[in-house]
Amino acid sequence: MSKLSSTEREVIERSYLDDEGEYDFISCGKMGITDRKFRYIKAGAISILAAAMGLEVIIDTDDVVV
Predict the structure, then answer these.
(1) Domain regions of the chain by residue span
(2) Rounded CA gap, 12 and 42, in Å?
């Protein structure tokens, strides 16, 4: 979780770690962001966490030499 920004951390906590069990549309309303932005942040945060745990391989196409 230390690799996440404060907004990404809040999204993950609201989605998965809080006991309240709020739906995403309620959480994004409380945070003052759109549902679309909430889902975008959530997907990015999950990707960062997966990479940190070694569950996902991220390939930067700019560094690929053909």
Answers:
(1) 6-56
(2) 7
